[in-house]
Amino acid sequence: AQSVTQLGSHVSVSEGALVLLRCNYSSSVPPYLFWYVQYPNQGLQLLLKYTTGATLVKGINGFEAEFKKSETSFHLTKPSAHMSDAAEYFCAVSVDGNQFYFGTGTSLTVIP
Amino acid sequence: GAVVSQHPSRVICKSGTSVKIECRSLDFQATTMFWYRQFPKQSLMLMATSNEGSKATYEQGVEKDKFLINHASLTLSTLTVTSAHPEDSSFYICSARWGDSPLHFGNGTRLTVT
After folding, report:
1. Among B109, B94, B86, residue whose Cα is nearest residue B17
2. Residue B30 to residue B24: CA distance in whole angstroms
3. Interface of chain B toward chain A, CB-CB under 8 angstroms
4. DSSP one-letter code for A2
5. Residues A67-106: tens digit of each pLDDT
């Protein structure tokens, strides 16, 4: 069975500061890993994904994430937060590309 | 990029009535569409998976007679909430994919049942 744990339901950072959103997963087989962003009253937008290959994945809007198998983690980072980054972020895992398991989300607040 | 259009974005209905939500893939043929429900400040809960031309596969605990899903074509899936009640009020989101593409999400539908 697969599951996703996002530590910290709320994260606040100052504008220009490092953003770190944590995601740990559980999977019996090598997973595909995803980060999605959701703005209020909208659907989810794919930020980045890991399938195979390079473990450091770069996504849109300056975000990146690193797959660490030994730590079963896929933390999302951005060097410098922007006000427009304020949103809800979801980590997701899939092993077959159809069944996705989402974390409970992390709400990011950016303080001016 | 691939676009998924969901309509309506908001709907208010009276208790006991039915509401239909449409999910369209605008520039690709979606072999699989998914329907999710999202409660405030919570994650997405997969309700069902639908493949074009076949019956939807519902997740455990989801009433198939209450949440009717039709995937009549490669570009359209509909979710009908039948005999809606206030507890059905929620944010419903669809997603679509072709082959092994990433999921593409609609913008969601806010359903309020009064």
Report:
1. B86
2. 9
3. 4, 6, 9, 32, 34, 41-44, 46, 49, 91, 93-95, 97, 100, 102-108, 110
4. -
5. 999 999 999 999 999 999 999 999 999 887 777 889 999 9
